[in-house]
């Protein structure tokens, strides 16, 4: 039971002046300890919203329903005092941007001290230095005394990873850890995650639009579109032979592939299309696709939300 987080029919909407923005639509999935599950999809597909909802980190105008079970407790409905005990300690977040996630006014030592609990068995200083060494800081004492502006982008990424793993959480939710980084930095992040995967038994929920990264590290892939899972299955299978028309289009649109974009735009989350959410952009659509929402069909070892696989 402790080995996974089970998400059942999670629905997240935001109340805005323009109307109700339906960001995540009755989404069910699970992720396990010791595995990397990657959620991929375009901006606005609901990846980050789902991830942040699990730690109750969404803004006040959000309406969340459904269940996300961790040790028989629903993370979505826990009291603030209870989720605070889990956040960071049991389920940690690696946030998107090190420049906005690290406090520019505090030395690294102080920022890491803040995340370490008092009941840590090792003396805290040793724990911090050991954690920094794990992320290839050869001179952890000097790094601990530094302010974020004295560190490179890659170093800051490693600090964020160290801050997440130092309390030995069971799960980590990583929100677009390679977003906006140049090629070199991206490769550094790939290595950091590879190392975390090797050294720990943490379960990762990796939120990314970086398919090279997902392909490199994820065991399992979930493809999101308009807040729904369109396809899920083992990473290698999905990359070698994508089934869903959206997965095919999304993989083809990547810079390392043909860069052929999917025609059209993602739908308005206020006025979602009838039937299949992808039908306005789908080259294979039939009349049924505009009338009925396809369920997730089981095809071999994967699930596909498309009538072509009925
Ligand atoms: Fe395309 Fe229809 Fe499949 Fe949707 S259900 S992806 S519109 S073929
Ligand atoms: Mg996002």
UniProtKB/TrEMBL annotation:
Keywords: ATP-binding, Cell membrane, Ion transport, Membrane, Nickel, Nickel transport, Nucleotide-binding, Translocase, Transport
GO BP annotation list: peptide transport
Signal peptide: none
Catalyzed reactions per annotation: Ni(2+)(out) + ATP + H2O = Ni(2+)(in) + ADP + phosphate + H(+)
Main EC class the enzyme belongs to: translocase
Predominant location: membrane
EC number, as in UniProt: 7.2.2.11
Classification via SUPFAM superfamilies: P-loop containing nucleoside triphosphate hydrolases (SSF52540)
Bilayer-crossing regions: none
Topology of the protein relative to the lipid bilayer: Peripheral membrane protein
Entry GO CC: plasma membrane
Homology family: Belongs to the ABC transporter superfamily.
Protein name as it appears in the record: Nickel import system ATP-binding protein NikD
Organism this protein belongs to: Tindallia magadiensis
